Amino acid sequence: MKALIAAGGRATRFRPLTWSMNKHLLPLAGKPMIFYPIENVVNAGVKEIAININPGDTEVRSVVGDGSRWRVKITYIEQQGGPLGIAHAVYNAREFLGEDEPFIFHLGDNIFRAGIKNIVDRFLNTGLHCALTLSRAPNLKELGVAEFGSDGRLVRVVEKPQIPPSDLAVTGVYIYDKHFFEAFKHMRPSARGEYEISDIHTWLIQNGFRVGYDIVDGWWKDPGRPDQLLDGNILAMNTLPHESYVIEGQMDPSVQIQGLVKVEKGTKIGPNVLIRGPVIIGEECEIRNTFIGPFTTIGSGCVIDGAEIEHSVLLDNVTLKDIGRIDGSMIGRHVTIVSRQKTLPMSGHRLIVGDHSIVEL
């Protein structure tokens, strides 16, 4: 099977971070979010992957590459016709996928603790036309939700229901055979102008095709908002194997390390630093006079002096200087935060803040 991974869209709820970068490149446990679905489909046996991207997007290509790091072939397909829904993104890739072969469709911002091999095996071994994964989720009004008949059978999928028909949402991994394209020919745009993937599933069910499902074992995460991405970062860090937490940077003898900590090459830490893991710190950072608490990931090239940081994600090339405590935060690339006490006048706050920012003072 081939696989298609969706990495388009504008991710307006992540602005201002996504004004300058693709949401699917935001880090979880120290690596781009999109690496998780790539690893999922590779572990399921896929050798050829296409990634759906926005027209003109070069950043995803440059970060992900040609697939050689996973020993697969990755190509890129630009979305045509504008944002017409994820079902249209699949249809847009029909030449790559072939209209006669089964394939995996994986949203690029969904992560799964147990991977997807079980549902792929079920699809291949039980003669299904479509296989879905379901999971209990708190934000059902933002997702496609499964509806079951009185006999317990799946009867349809309702997109973003005001009154959810069950507590089981359809997660972002789907497996189809050639009948996906037959179903798409019967689709019409929804009230919001999109070809809904939920309508594909409902059409297949109501027209007698075999649509199976598994309930996800453990957690899955669809980070649709910054606080959900922070939750996803915790989950991803908790599932990293202990052997991946390796200290390769230079450590001052005074540095205190408690718990699992990963420090990449070229980073210099200390003096007067306490790190309480799990913590991941990227390459070429300089950190001193700082406390770094659990579930914090720090990108490459960061400079931190005189701060307390916990449960936060810092992207590359952040500078923090004499700022006190930061908790539950996401800080974008090339951001500088310094103490108001180090500039004149010494009272008040000086802010240069872009659209859709969140600041607490």
Automatic annotation (TrEMBL):
What InterPro entries does the annotation carry?
G1P_thy_trans_l, GlmU/GlgC-like_hexapep, NTP_transferase_dom, Nucleotide-diphossugar_trans
Name all Glucose-1-phosphate adenylyltransferase/Bifunctional protein GlmU-like C-terminal hexapeptide domain ranges.
297-339
Q: Which CDD domains match?
A: G1P_TT_long
Residue ranges occupied by any Nucleotidyl transferase domain in the UniProt entry? 2-233
Q: Does the keyword Transmembrane helix apply?
A: no
GO MF: transferase activity
Sorted alphabetically, the keyword list is: Transferase
Q: Does the keyword Transmembrane helix apply?
A: no
Instruction: Check the record and name the NCBIfam families matching this protein.
Output: rmlA_long
**What name appears for this protein in its UniProt entry?**
Glucose-1-phosphate thymidyltransferase
Recorded source organism is Candidatus Uhrbacteria bacterium GW2011_GWC2_41_11
